Structure formats: structure tokens, C-alpha cells
């Protein structure tokens, strides 16, 4: 897409905290979210994050100065319906972003009318940005797939289909939670290592609880069942992105996953960050989609000059951990890894086009997970399973603690941001969850 | 559950066609569905099938004589909301069934007031009985799993987890259609047999399109995330059943399914029958859940006396095929197979309890598929892949046609019914779909 004044790195906001060092939400970002007054039972409202504030779009709607042609979208947002805006044509979404940027820019004629429509983020609670219809999780990092494959199949780490098929599977929509929701350690069937083949499995608390560092992309406009989506149209059908923690029970997974894939090892809960960072906000950070030398070109329906030129996104992704002991000692979280989404073996557009290539109908609000995003270096791995080499090399933490897998009380936080040297930081906010003990047995 | 007068095989209805030979919808059935006048754009209404008619529950609501305590449920049904009734406690659902049975029984004082509330089924079009949140498909027939496993892994047909884990995976909710919706042959990636390992796959129309004979169970009441559902509560959380055709692209499946399971080979479309046959209607057909000698007992959380005594359902299931040539010659469909759901290796209650055992939250309107239900005999197989032995022994049809897999123009119909000698037939209605050619490439 063409960049416009909403992307100008020099643009500032009349909301002072939007200029704060390290803020995830400068005026160049403007992500959407659903919020209400913390602790209230009010209906959820749509807001735009700006600095440490939220522009409440219900309170903002009556202000004079909004472009008349955006009335349907502004009315939908004021009514709490983000999906209606996600489903709008790309040009409309671009125009809406520009209107919001102009309204919040320093010198805006709307400042006086909008000042009362700000709500401090610290006073708000968030929920999912929109209802999620179907949730699909992909496996788009070849580094993750290779490392995991090496553990399970040392002779044949990467299956022959990997380089051709954007491998994916359907996940559980109902158990996706917003950041801050605790995650309960699941019970499940496992087959303890070394137990004889004929021995029954055991049922009890997961012993190998893990996180997965993923991005999620929300579908903007869907397609009719039976009608594929050409790659050239795929980008415009993406609304924006969130962080996604695909919590995983590795011991349950190992026992259950053949032949139909992961199920109870994943669907006990997933966590996403609350702010929908729009594809428009990420436009300045698009970079060429480049595969390593020797990798094949995608099949023609998954390949295009535009996808090669700007299909990838330069997006730093991080994992942070704070254990219960660290929290008691007043210590901040430590970073477990840092990578970049541009290393993905498939672009978001390829994932969407592949998904619809058989005529599967996607809908506004569907969530596409990228799969664990691990980089080429071991320290860029997006899961503890990888960082600890399947538990063989526990990760050292402050105070003498170690982790092969997550312990009760651990708070795991994903972060992501796109940023150029000296420019604004297009941040995603935290995607965070604390592990609770498993339910009692029986 | 206790049987009541609604189950009395001698009970007859003032709707004459409910007594017709072979009807799926005698007064002992009373399944719910969503319908509207065919070709209209009216809102969908809830009805109960009776003979060849539908009792329109919006038109029936004002009639005098309904039990006052059922007003909330009758109002919900009149308003088109079946989910509200599904979510009601079991006792309420039982009482509602009894009220509907009494209203439609011969000699009912409500007959005169309800006669105008009947709509011929031939004048109605149907949609899904309720919105489907999440859809899960299981793999509950050991005969199907063994036959399929033998094709892919001759030395090791049944994986070690099969006898312990009710294997399942998440399917696509958005592409589930009601009976009568055509199914478009999907495009997809396949790796032709005999092509060298390093050769790219091809992208084109599926060459091995198949059906799968399944039952689907709708969830009545859901559970809170993190809180498993004990087996003793599972039956009451099931609302009812439908037929489910899990159309499958076998060539796409073979290439894509490792390591995360089937995806595009399944999610291009699934078909269900329109009438929700309630668990109450099926109560007289519950039979002991018996596994073959030598099979292990389920783990304790998946085992109970009640599940052993009445966990299974004696339900005949059939597959019928009419090719385009047969249709042109005016020939009726031929039966490809007949089996019985009581052969399932897992009961519906076990599937639900397993699903929630890790805390996964189920919700009203979720659909649980049983997986292909194949019986112990080869002719009881629930897919063409099995009947044709992977395409090696094509199935002979009238007029000299054969089928290893489905051809464009084929109409595939699933049927099911529970019936005792000389008693009423608790039928499911047709679950039908006709194969359309694939979209044009590129």
C-alpha cells in the first residue's frame, strides 16, 4: 500500500504520552481494541490505543470534524462493532486510519472535542478485539519445524511436504483468551517415557507445559465457499495482527498427536494480545520475502512479484518470563528469546491463499496463527521445548532457578514491535498469562 | 433417562402422515430444525418435524394449552432461537418434548389451534439447526481406523494410542452446510504416486474425492474453561444428533496430513442433516457399550457403570449413491453400505468428557463428529476409500458404472434410523449433497 501522512515518523500527537520513549502506541500505530471500565459490567466499547490512553470511539463519535463519508464505519465503532470495520474494503480502512490519525495529530481541530474521550489504559480492562469464528494455526517457521522434527525424527527432521504446503490445522476458537487471563495447567493422558508399550497411559497434570511464540492475523473480508482467493487479493483481506501464545502440553501432545494432529495438548487455552495492529500501521515495515539459497520457489498460485518484494514483515518478537520467586523478590521479567517474523518460511498472504485454495470459506474475524516463530539461531527459538532441547539443557534464570518447562506461578509474556532506527515503535502491547495449578483429579 | 408417554410406541398423532409407513418422523421422534418458506427471504423459524409436516413453533406459540412453566423455552423457540432450548437443563428439555408430544398426539385438546401451524416439509427450505461455534471431529470407529491404518502402515495399522485416547481434531465450522447444498470438488496440492521425492507436487482438482459416514452430536450445555466435565454429567450435556458427511479429498489428505493432521482435505465442506434428533427421542434405543474380547477397559475417568450399561446407541446407518447417469435414466439411488453406530469404540459421553478433560470449554451449539463409522464387516465400511480398498476394487453400480471415488454429478446421501421390531422409526432425514466440478484453475 501507499504510505500517507499517517505514517510520517515526524507526526506527533496532542496526547503527550504518545511521544513517550518506548511507548508501543505512538500516533503511527493506532491499533483497535475492545475495552470497558475495569471491574464494571458495562458493554464492551471500541477504542484506539494512543500513548497510555484509549480514544473511546463511542465518546468520540459526536465530536465535530469526522469525514462524512466514514459515518457508517464510525457509527459501527461507536456501537462496539469492530468486525464491521474489518469487513470494509481496504480503501475504507485506509481512510479511517487517516481520519483517526488526523484527529489525534498535534494541531488537530478536533482536539478540544476529543480530549474528554480519552480513557487511561490503566483504568480499562480489555477483551478479544472481535468474536473469533474459526481459528487456524499454521507451522510457518522452517527453523521451528526442523528443530522439533529433529527431536521426534532424527533421521528425517523435515517432512517432504513442508517446503510446498503451508502446513496448518484447525485450532480451538472458544478457548482463546485475551492477555492477562490466567492459564490453568491441563490434566491429560500421557505415556511416561520408558513405560512398556502394552502399559496403560496415565491421566494427570501436564508435566511439560510450554508456550509458543506466534503472531496471529485477523481476516478482514471473507470469501464465498467454493471460491479460492488469489494471492493478489490476499493482503487486502487481512485486517491486522496480534501476538498469540499457543500454550502447549508437550507430554499430552506426544501421546495424542498421531495420526490426526494436536488436540487436547493445545485447546485448553490460547492467549492473544488485546490490540489489533492494523496492516496499514505495519506498511512501512514490509520487506522482501526471501528464502535461503537452495529453497524451492513456491508453486505458482503461492508466488507473485508483490509477495516477493514486500510479503514479509520486519517485526521483532520477544519472550519474557517472570517466575513466582522473581515476582516475590520484586524482580522484573527476563527475556528468554528475541527473533524476527521476517524469517517466516511463508508470508501471511500465502497462508490465507493456501487456506482458501480448496474453496474453504474464511470470514471476518477468523484468526490465522503463524505457528511458533523461531529464528535460524538457537537463541531465537520460540518455545521452551526448543530452548531447553527437549528438557535436556534447562534454561538458567536469576536466583539459581532453571526451566525446562513452565512451572505454576510463571508469568509468560510475548512482545513484538516494528521499528526503524530512531523512528516510532509500532508495538503490540503485552501478550501475557500466568500459569495456575491444574484442577484436582477426579 | 426414564421413558415417558412420549416414547410409547402405540402413541399416534392427529397429523396423519406421522403414521405413514417408513416415515422418519413419527410422534415418537419430534426433532427440531430451522426452516423458512422455500425461496423466501423470511427469517429462519424453529419447527418440529411430524410426518411430512413441520409444526411451526412461532405459529404454534399463541395456541392455548401449553404448560405455563415452559413459557421461556416456548418463547425462545417462537423467536427462532433453538440454542436457548438446547442450553436448558435436561429436565426442562424432557418436559418440553413431553409438551410437544401431548400437543401433537391424537385426541390433543390443542389440535384445532395447532392445525394452522403446520407447514408441509415440501414447501420449506432448511438451514443448520443452530449456529455452530466450534466443530470437533473424532475417530471413534476402530474398524475404520484399522482399515485406513492398514493402507498407510501395513505393519502397524493401529497406533498405540488408539485404544486409550478418543482421537480427535478440530474441524472447520464455517464450511458446514445443511443437506441439499452442493459440494464443489476442491483444488489442492497432491504428490502423484511414483513421482520422485524431489519433484514438486502438482496443484489441481482433487482426483480422489470421498465421503465419510458420521454422526454428529450437538452440545447442549457447555462448561467453564479450566473445568472438566465428569463422565456422569456428559450425557445431560448432549442435545441431540444429526448425520454428518465429512467429505474428504484423499489425495490432498495423503500429501498434507503430516505432522499436524488433515486440513484442506476436509475443510472445503461438510454436510449435516437438518433435523436435530434429540437424545430424548433416542432414549429407548440405548444399548450396552461393549468392546470386543481382549480390548482394554477405558481409563477410570472415561469409564462408569452407566456408560457400560446404556452408553451405546442402536442406530442403523446407511450410505446411498445416485450417479448423474442413474438420475438421467430415472433410477433411484443404490445403497453402498449399512452399519450400526453401536459398533463405535467410544460413546458420545466419552468423547465429550475426553474433550473437556483438559479444561477445554465446550459451548451450546458445538458439534462433535464421531468420525467415520465403519462396522466390523467390509461391507459396513463408511467411506469409498474402504469399500474400494484404496481404489483397488472399484464398487460396481447399475448400468455398468463403477466408483473408486466420487465423480462430478454424484449425489451421496446418508440415512440413519433407530427402530425396534414393528415399532416407530426414529429417522434422521436425508443428509445429501451433489458433487459439482472444481473451480477453474488460475
Automatic annotation (TrEMBL), chains A, B:
Its cofactor is Ca(2+); Mg(2+). Keywords: Calcium, Hydrolase, Magnesium, Metal-binding, Phenylalanine catabolism, Tyrosine catabolism. Residues 137-435 form the Fumarylacetoacetase-like C-terminal domain. Pathway: Amino-acid degradation; L-phenylalanine degradation; acetoacetate and fumarate from L-phenylalanine: step 6/6. It is an enzyme of class 3 (hydrolase). Residues 28-129 form the Fumarylacetoacetase N-terminal domain. Its EC number is 3.7.1.2. GO terms for molecular function: fumarylacetoacetase activity. InterPro entries: Fumarylacetoacetase (IPR005959), Fumarylacetoacetase-like_C (IPR011234), Fumarylacetoacetase_C_sf (IPR036663), Fumarylacetoacetase_N (IPR015377), Fumarylacetoacetase_N_sf (IPR036462). PANTHER family: FUMARYLACETOACETASE. This is fumarylacetoacetase.
Amino acid at each position: 500500500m501507499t504510505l500517507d501522512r499517517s505514517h510520517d515518523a515526524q507526526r506527533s500527537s496532542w496526547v503527550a504520552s504518545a511521544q513517550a520513549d518506548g511507548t508501543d502506541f505512538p500516533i503511527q500505530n493506532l491499533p483497535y481494541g475492545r475495552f470497558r471500565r475495569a471491574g464494571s459490567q458495562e458493554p464492551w466499547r471500541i477504542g484506539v490505543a494512543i500513548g497510555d490512553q484509549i480514544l473511546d470511539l463511542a465518546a468520540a463519535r459526536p465530536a465535530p470534524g469526522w469525514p462524512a463519508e466514514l459515518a457508517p464505519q464510525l457509527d459501527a465503532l461507536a456501537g462496539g462493532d469492530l468486525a464491521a470495520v474489518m469487513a470494509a474494503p481496504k480503501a475504507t480502512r485506509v481512510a479511517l486510519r487517516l481520519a483517526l490519525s488526523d484527529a489525534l495529530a498535534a494541531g488537530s481541530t478536533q482536539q478540544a472535542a476529543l480530549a474528554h474521550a480519552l480513557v487511561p489504559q490503566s483504568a480499562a480492562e480489555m477483551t478479544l478485539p472481535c468474536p473469533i469464528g474459526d481459528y487456524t494455526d499454521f507451522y510457518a517457521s522452517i527453523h521451528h519445524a526442523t528443530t522439533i522434527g529433529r527431536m521426534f525424527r532424527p533421521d528425517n527432521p523435515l517432512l517432504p511436504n513442508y517446503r510446498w504446503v503451508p502446513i496448518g490445522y484447525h485450532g480451538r476458537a472458544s478457548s482463546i483468551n485475551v492477555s492477562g487471563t490466567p492459564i490453568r495447567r491441563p490434566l491429560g493422558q500421557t505415556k511416561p517415557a520408558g513405560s512398556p508399550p502394552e502399559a496403560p497411559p496415565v491421566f494427570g497434570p501436564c508435566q511439560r507445559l510450554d508456550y509458543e511464540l506466534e503472531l496471529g492475523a485477523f481476516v478482514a473480508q471473507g470469501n464465498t465457499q467454493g471460491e479460492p482467493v488469489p494471492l493478489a487479493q490476499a493482503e487486502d483481506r487481512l485486517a491486522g495482527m496480534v501476538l498469540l501464545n499457543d500454550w502447549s502440553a508437550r507430554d499430552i501432545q506426544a501421546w495424542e498427536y498421531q495420526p490426526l494432529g494436536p488436540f487436547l495438548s493445545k485447546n485448553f487455552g490460547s492467549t492473544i494480545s488485546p490490540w489489533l495492529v492494523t496492516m496499514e500501521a505495519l506498511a512501512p515495515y514490509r520487506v522482501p520475502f526471501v528464502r535461503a539459497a537452495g529453497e524451492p520457489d513456491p508453486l505458482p498460485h503461492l508466488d507473485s512479484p508483490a509477495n516477493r518484494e514486500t510479503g514479509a514483515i520486519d517485526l521483532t518478537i520477544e519472550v519474557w518470563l517472570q517466575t513466582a520467586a522473581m515476582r516475590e523478590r520484586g524482580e522484573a521479567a527476563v527475556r528468554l528469546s528475541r527473533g524476527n517474523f521476517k524469517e517466516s518460511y511463508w508470508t501471511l498472504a500465502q497462508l490465507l491463499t493456501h487456506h482458501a485454495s480448496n474453496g474453504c470459506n474464511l470470514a471476518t474475524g477468523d484468526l490465522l496463527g503463524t505457528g511458533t516463530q523461531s529464528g535460524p539461531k538457537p537463541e531465537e527459538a520460540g518455545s521452551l521445548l526448543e530452548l531447553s532441547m527437549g528438557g535436556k539443557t534447562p534454561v538458567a534464570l536469576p536466583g539459581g532457578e532453571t526451566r525446562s518447562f513452565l512451572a505454576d506461578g510463571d508469568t509468560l509474556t510475548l512482545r513484538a514491535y516494528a521499528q526503524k532506527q530512531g523512528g516510532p515503535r509500532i508495538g503490540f502491547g503485552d501478550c501475557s498469562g500466568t500459569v495456575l495449578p491444574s484442577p484436582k483429579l477426579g
